[in-house]
Write a structure and sequence with these properties.
Elements (H helix, E strand, L loop, with lengths): L8 H8 L14 H11 L11 E6 L2 H7 L7 H6 L2 E8 L6 H10 L5 H16 L3 H25 L3 E5 L4 H7 L7 E10 L13 H4 L4
Antiparallel strand pairs: 1-2, 2-4, 3-4
Helix pairs in contact: 2-7, 5-6
């Protein structure tokens, strides 16, 4: 039997998380704190540790105005949040493979021999993946980051709302990114809530689960 966790803080973070539509417009998040939250959230797992997630933080009124026509019915979050976090997946994330694995060796988390064998197999494999397969990987990995970021944000006292309704074919170019390389996965609004959020229910685990 696993050791029982005595501290209920993490459970509270999970069960108190709400999807918020309206935020306190006076609350700003410093770049230092935003980077700290992102850094914590990047401990989320990713396929062969390629960490394909990339971020654009939209926080100025001018840039939010640019985002507004691209997010359909999610304008209240855009207008009131401290920031809108655009999460993209990098189709050429393998370009960072050597840097990632070299750092693992430097920090004694991997031997040089293992690094070389891994890179020899991973880099060609990633380069030869179909666009659809790579897209699937990026979406899964970005989703893992997004959920972790939402929990980290809650631990910092902020609320979030995941947004999937946006013009995916226009988002990258609107913010100066190569649309062929950077695939939009999700948008997260973040800030201090000004409402109670939407109440929702969940199906019971036994209805969703089959044991074999």
């Amino acid at each position: 039997m696993a050791t029982e966790v005595k501290n209920n803080d993490f459970s509270n973070i999970i069960f108190e998380r709400k999807s918020i539509r309206l935020y306190n417009e006076d609350v700003k998040i410093s770049h230092e704190e935003m980077l700290e939250m992102i850094q914590k959230a990047t401990t989320a797992p990713s396929s062969v540790n390629m960490q394909p997630w990339r971020f654009v933080i939209v926080e100025s009124p001018e840039e939010k105005q640019k985002l507004k026509p691209l997010i359909r019915f999610n304008t209240p979050q855009n207008e009131t949040s401290s920031a809108m976090i655009l999460i993209f997946g990098d189709m050429e994330c393998y370009e960072y493979g050597e840097e990632i694995y070299n750092q693992a060796v430097e920090e004694n988390k991997m031997s040089a021999e293992v690094r070389d064998k891994q890179l020899e197999a991973i880099i060609p494999y990633y380069k030869n993946l179909s666009r659809q397969k790579m897209n699937d990987i990026l979406k899964i990995d970005s989703g893992l980051f997004a959920m972790q970021f939402m929990l980290v944000a809650r631990s910092h006292g902020y609320d979030t709302c995941p947004i999937g309704g946006f013009e995916a074919d226009q988002l990258a170019e609107a913010f100066g990114l190569d649309k062929n390389r950077y695939v939009p996965a999700m948008i997260l609004s973040i800030g201090e809530s000004m409402d109670d959020g939407y109440q929702s229910v969940r199906l019971k685990a036994d209805k969703l689960t089959t044991f074999k």
